[in-house]
Amino acid sequence: MRRKAQGEKRSCLMRIKEPFKLTAVGVIGFWLMAFALLPNLLVVVASLLERGGDEFVALILTLDNYRRLFDPLYLGVLLDSLWLAAATTLLCLLLGYPFAYLLTRMPTRRRPLLLLLVIVPFWTSSLVRTYAMVILLQTNGWLNQLLLDLGWIAEPLELLYTEPAVIAGMLYALLPFMILPLYAVLEKLDRRLIEAARDLGAGRVTIFRRIILPLTLPGIVAGCLLTFLPGLGMFYVADLLGGARAMLVGNLIRDQFLSARDWPFGAAASVLLTVLMGLLLWAYYLSARRANQGALP
Amino acid sequence: MSEWVIELRNVSKAYAAHAVLRNVTLQVRVGEFLTLLGPSGCGKTTILRLLAGFEPANGGEILIGGQDMRTLPPEQRQVNTVFQSYALFPHLTVFENVAFGPRVKGVKGPVLRDRVMDTLRMVKLEDFAGRKPGQLSGGQQQRVAIARAVVNQPRVLLLDEPLSALDYKLRKAMQLELKQLQRRLGITFIFVTHDQEEALSMSDRVAVMNAGRIEQFGTPRQIYEAPENLFVARFVGEINNLSGRVVAAAPPRYDIRLHDRVVNLKSQYIFGVGDRVHVLVRPEDVRIWREHEGSAEERAALFPAVVEAVVYKGSTVDLAIRLDSGDTLSTTQFFNEDDQALMNLDFREGERVFVDWVRDWETILPHEE
Amino acid sequence: MKPRGAIQIAYLVLIYGFLYLPILVLIVYSFNDAKYSLEWRGVTWTWYRNLLDDPDLLQAALNSVLIAALSATVATGIGALAAVALYRYEFFGKPLLQGLIFVLMMTPDIVMGIALLILFASLSLPLGFWTLLLAHITFNIPFVVVTVLSRISGFDRHLLEAAKDLGATEFQTVRRIVLPLLMPAVAAGWLLSFTLSMDDVMVSFFVTGPTFEILPLKIYSMARLGVTPEINALCTLMLGATLILILVAQLLLRERT
User: C18, C246, C4: which is closest to A92 by C-alpha?
Assistant: First the structure.
């Protein structure tokens, strides 16, 4: 019944556009199947195979690659990487949330320009920006010079090739990815809700905890998603700012594919990343649904 | 050609399993200003969409100028629409918006220019031809939408709540302007609104709709003064509803018991003794006597009551009155210029009064659940 | 209120400073007439001239522009088509396609990089120009879809009906109404794709071969060896080009009337 009514409604428009529709759906469908779905399936398959000689993989099923992820050697890298990404994400959130909130409080007239100033680093190459960070942090770099001139330190610090340097670099590369989704939810936040809460006698902390935070949770989760996942993978940040040590899952994966030539193991590590992504997406979905429940009938 | 420019015969329409129009039959005269009035979701906009050709009907016939519309796509119909949202093309100037219709029909050069400018002059927008819709006020956008729809000289103009986005004063002014425009163009207007005041003041005839059906079709006066059922009575204007029972019948006059009073009233309906009826009275038809007014005999025929609330409205005073029988009436009292002191409307809450209404201005309907 | 306002402004300035200071330092030092010193020795174009004298670098730049332009163009075509189809039609598997587009956008670059590498390896495609192009088209598509889709979704659905109502045929409606209204979003989608493609390191890292070098990877391999004024100059040029493209894209997206 339903399908019939819809079909009739559209029928007169459809007749002319049928070839167009077939082409459009066909092309995008093919592309996504071939270059999004298939490669990811192949990764899963590869992660379940054994390492091969000339062929990269040998067609023998095994769970060994996943077991090896928990080998102390690799587990260390994994935990390091999780720690670095989590620290970066938390810093991004702590710095980005007040920033995004203040942006929404700026005069409407100035907001487009202020927002553009966040969008520019969002779209520019994070490699170039990481490199800029190197200039700033190197031993004879700008930051050391500044601290020396101020008399705060007697001799240049070894800033580069340390863990804080990597965190700083990732923070610098990823902060815009946290700010933009936060800004999006904070801008949509109805000011009258805050006024209503104040009217009802809620203090600042209560308003933030009970009103603003739950309503902006989807933005927070989205921001964390956009910083945490790349934070695990950005091998060039660890390379340029952290030195030769493999610090991130990203470096681990890259090395498996380029130097160690252990594709199945690299694939397993990347499946792990994908699973993490899935969990975060799920969290995002839940938070978005919860935040919208009040608004939707 | 027949007298009807539009005919709907038993038209029905459903979305999925939900029926929005049930066997609607409607005939529209050439040059008429017809309003479809009803609450949201009653199907009034659907009728416009069927006439414009955006959607096909599930059953019945739609004729425009005597021609069956079933297979004709919107672009080939001699009807044009003014959309509720105006739907002005944002990337085109006012001139180009109005020129769109003639242009796609192949009109070019000075002929096109003249036609567009004439139409813009008609809606007093000739100085705004070069602007984009985004640079116009709501009222101006509204006029562009109208100009764009009439420039092709359609047989019928469909207007889907075109005034709902405007503020009160502008809406009043546009009502008048639309009415004048319609007279000048001689085009049939089919106007959709949920605002009963708008419907009554502009239309030649009004079709009151509810839940996919036409409840009553008639002149504004018929609709307001002689509603054919409770829905129409309640939807169009405010009305008081008193339940009664027929105690003596001498058609067209009946004795009807309203609680402890029996009143003799006239009705076009045929009732039998014992039938339950609704006696409907408009608030402005209710008359009020204060305690010191009128003689005791006069009062004996009135309904004793107590004033429950007094609402001052500027030109009127509205009262909520509770009859001793328990029914509540709302009344509207007009300030009378002839009274020297306006003291006569100085009602107090809790004051005892006596009420009746202007006889024969009531409406009597058979009982409905 | 006043002191709090001042603190707020200070905080904004601080974060903007953090976002822009390193870039500013990078740009300034690309003009410094000293090879290894921070000391300001006056303005020079030496480093930029050096870039022009490096044929490898020029070739890499040319390759990058070629890949970016081609991938942006193809991705814009496919992406715009997909956006229109997703907006106007119901079809079997539509939720799957929407899901894939979303997942494609969220997938960490490194995962996409190795997934495509495995795909190309299983197909025995030699890594180089073609694999790079396919990869770039793939990661650009979702951005075009989202850009165009958000524009169409903002349309008043009645606009198309109004055009029909006034007598326009399907072709006239598409040519005079749909295309002009979509144009800014399509152009913005192209520009954003172009910048994404120009700037990408992670995916390209896995899917290009030694025969086909592109600028970001060149910068990466140079930067691993240390800071030189030439890289400063090169990065400044990249930043400048990206900045211009983003500004144009933002202007196109903001234009409403």
Answer: C18
In chain A, count H helices and then E strands: 14, 2
- For the domain that residue C242 is a member of, what is the CATH number? 1.10.3720.10
In this complex, the residue of A2, A8, A12 whose CB is nearest that of residue B17 is A2
Cβ of C169 under 8 Å from any chain B Cβ? yes
Confidence (pLDDT) at C37:
66
pLDDT at B11: 93
- Which residue of chain A is at minimal alpha-carbon distance from C19? A172
Q: What's the rounded Cα separation, in Å, for the pair A42 and A264? A: 10
**Does the distance separating the beta carbons of B16 and A8 come in below 8 Å?**
no
Interface subset of A 6-65, CB within 8 angstroms of B: 6, 8-9, 11-12
**Burial of B172 from C-beta contacts in 10 A (0-12 / 13-18 / 19+):** middle
Interface test with A, best of C9, C118, C237 (most A CBs within 10 A): C118
Determine the Cα–Cα distance for residues A163 and C212; give it in Å rounded to an integer: 34
Provide the CATH number for the domain formed by B277-366 in this structure: 2.40.50.140
Q: Are the beta carbons of C165 and B85 separated by less than 8 Å?
A: no
> Is the pLDDT higher at A141 or at B237?
B237
Q: Does some domain include residue C64? A: yes
Q: Return the pLDDT at B337.
A: 61
Q: Which CATH superfamily is domain A64-293 in?
A: MetI-like (1.10.3720.10)
> Under an 8 A CB cutoff, do A136 and C223 touch?
no
In a domain, C30, yes or no: no
Tens-place pLDDT, residues B276-310: 999 999 999 998 888 777 777 777 778 889 999 99
Dmax over CA atoms of chain B, in Å, equals: 82
> Among all residues of chain A, which has the CA nearest to that of B72?
A12
Query: Is B133 in Cβ contact with C257 (below 8 Å)?
Result: yes
A-to-B residue pairs, Cβ atoms closer than 8 angstroms: 16
Start-to-end CA span in chain A (Å): 26
Assess if residue C40 is contained within a domain: no
Reported as a pLDDT band with limits 50, 70 and 90, residue A191 is confident
**pLDDT at position B342 over 60:** no
CATH of the structural domain B4-234, one choice from 3.90.1150.10, 2.40.50.1020, 3.40.50.300, 3.10.20.740 = 3.40.50.300
pLDDT of residue A297: 33
Give yes or no for residue C191 having a pLDDT over 90.
yes
Residue A295: the pLDDT is: 45
A9–B56 C-beta distance less than 8 A:
yes
* Residue C206 near residue A267, CB atoms below 8 Å: no
